[in-house]
Amino acid sequence: MVDAKSYGPWAIIAGASEGVGVAFARQLGEAGINLVLIARQKPLLEQLAHEVGARSGVQTRVLVLDLARTDTLERVREVTHDIEVGLLVFNAAASTGIGYFLDATLERVVEAVRLGPLGYASLAHHFGGRMAARHRGGIILIGSLAGNAGAATRTPARERVALKDSPDQFVAEPEDVARECLDNLANGPVLVPAHLEEGFRMFSSMPRRQAAETMTRLLLSFRK
To answer: Using CA atoms, how far apart are residues 171 and 34, in angstroms rounded to an integer?
Structure first.
């Protein structure tokens, strides 16, 4: 488990309002690390901040923010300029839906790019530079393996796209995902959970088009 002495006194969790983000907040709070919680849903963030603070005694800051905005980095800087951030967890994600790229609206596609690659890059660059200067810190960028390994995590987001459990699909629990990430923080740069390694290798060995089409059919078969 990480600790404030090794990484720093504060952690940012981008995408903290539910699912894996909540699990990260609880586990990092138990480790004595103060938290900056970022997401769009103010009531859920405030509830989580109160819960973790009361249980663990750590300090919390809440930033209500759509991480797909063009001024995300500036907004995050405003609430973190006076603290030492030793751990960045980017857990937020946007989906264009289960199906083909051209069936999604351009707005959904652009949102996914802003939240995913651009969000990862901007926050990792900003905080990573400061961590490097201090010679300590860690960054966790959560990516979906749905395009490679055919698995998912039991989160509200999974429920919103109406995926059902199936004997053919391993469904991970948020607490286990967060714990495995934190336990393996020093074992990067890429971590593929043990239960996904076989599927990851199989899909990664396919031509990209075949893998994408196979994954689309598989996910559609899991719809309720």
So the answer is: 30
Placement of tokens 């200067």 in the chain:
133
**DSSP character at residue 206:** S
**CATH code of the domain containing 159:** 3.40.50.720
Element (H, E) at 38: strand 34-39
Q: Which residues pair with 88 in a beta bridge?
A: 12, 139
For residue 15, which of 73, 78, 88, 113 has the smallest C-alpha distance?
88
For the chain, the domain total comes to 1
Cβ(4)–Cβ(28) under 8 Å? no
**Structure confidence at residue 156 as a pLDDT band (50, 70, 90):** low
The first and second tokens of residue 142, run together, are: 């959560």
Considering only residues 163 and 114, tell me which one the structure prediction assigns the higher pLDDT: 114
pLDDT interval class at 160 (50, 70, 90): very low
The rounded distance, in Å, linking the Cα atoms of 166 and 31 is 35
pLDDT band of 117, cuts 50, 70, 90: confident
- What domain range includes position 123? 4-221
Can you tell me the mean pLDDT for 1-23?
91
Instruction: Identify the band that residue 30 occupies on the pLDDT scale cut at 50, 70 and 90.
Output: very high
Cis peptide before 167 (omega within 30 of 0): no
CA distance 82 to 61: 12
